[in-house]
Amino acid sequence: MSSITLTKLSKSYGSSTVIDDLSLSIPEGEFLTLLGPSGCGKTTTLRSIAGLETPDAGQITIGEKVVTCMEQGTVLPPNRRGVGMVFQSYAIWPHLSVFDNVAYPLRRQRVSSKEIQHRVMATLENVGLDHAAHRSATLLSGGQQQRVALARAIVSKPDVLLFDEPLSNLDAQLRISMRDEIQRVRSQGNTTSVYVTHDQSEAFSLSDRVAIMLGGKIVQLDTPEAVMARPANLMVARFLGVENLLQGVVLRRDAGSALLDVPDLGATLTVKCRPGDANPGDRVTLGIRSASITVQSENAEPADESQYPDEPRNTVSGTVVQTTFLGEGAQYRVAVGASHVLARVWSNDSAPLPPNTRVRLSLPSHRITVFDR
Ligand SMILES: Nc1ncnc2c1ncn2[C@@H]1O[C@H](COP(=O)(O)OP(=O)(O)OP(=O)(O)O)[C@@H](O)[C@H]1O
């Protein structure tokens, strides 16, 4: 187990800056995910930690060891960094058996054959592949090949585990079982881990903290819950798929909340916000997820909202223009004022409301995020 520190890391290809003066500290034992859209520089950052890519500037420390320091010309090769890596493409050797694939890093370290036999079999057992030890690795399914890659990454008990989109080539079901496998293996050794993905659900389910990367920079570094609840800015909100983004103007400000005029909805809304987030006259953008909005037919009894006695519910009226049945619940596109609002209902307790139904939407104030325009 080692901490990882990146200091002022930069990398360009021609005129395109891929990592832009990036600094990041990952404490011992943490599972951190670099999450961002394609091309934002996640893989290049990960490969720089592994020693498979050389940055133009900056320093990387693993534990006490400076593994890259461009200012001093230090670049340790991958096999001297104490890292294990799992790639999207499995990267296992087709001409070797499962056993020999996993044994490979130990043989490079000149570990005795008795010890190799013991450690490889124990690791294969750990990932549920001991029965396949002597099969050719290429005869295994994609999911099993990725388990071989995971076993090979952990067999030498590295200080750090690096994962480059390891689930991308697997189908939905295998993805979940491999994700659980990574979580299990990781929690056994509590190895410091860096994981790269563009998939939010992977990032949120595995990580202690998530670093959102956009354009070669980390724009938000937080727990999964905090990233979901409070995207740092509008670009992060868009990347995370916050469906409803509305324009507003701040009318009034109290200690913990603000009253906003939202002409698109023809309504005023109260939102929770931090001091300094919104001042009277500010033009802002409001973000709210479809799943945070409650939908009710106007003919139904108003919902019991006593669980949030001090919470302004921001109720607005509208007309359903589109209903999409999602298997588990439904999504509604609702015309409110001059705008459309997306709302997601998770329950199948009653039949989905058909188009043209008049509805009440509740937009809980603590679920609305305010962004500078
Ligand atoms: N060897 C290279 N030569 C030129 N350009 C490169 C090279 N490697 C990466 N790039 C470019 O650098 C940018 C960042 O690549 P990187 O793979 O780090 O992004 P990413 O966020 O991991 O994206 P993805 O999820 O698509 O892999 C991309 O525009 C990519 O085309």
Automatic annotation (TrEMBL):
**Entries under SUPFAM superfamilies matching the protein:** MOP-like, P-loop containing nucleoside triphosphate hydrolases
Indicate the segments forming the ABC transporter domain, all copies.
4-240
- Provide the alphabetized UniProt keywords: ATP-binding, Cell membrane, Membrane, Nucleotide-binding, Translocase, Transport
**Key word Cell inner membrane present in the record?**
no
- Protein name as catalogued: Iron(III) transport system ATP-binding protein
GO molecular function annotation: ATP binding
Do you know which Gene3D superfamilies this protein is assigned to?
Answer: 2.40.50.100, Nucleic acid-binding proteins (2.40.50.140), P-loop containing nucleotide triphosphate hydrolases (3.40.50.300)
Q: Which Pfam families match?
A: ABC_tran (PF00005), TOBE_2 (PF08402)
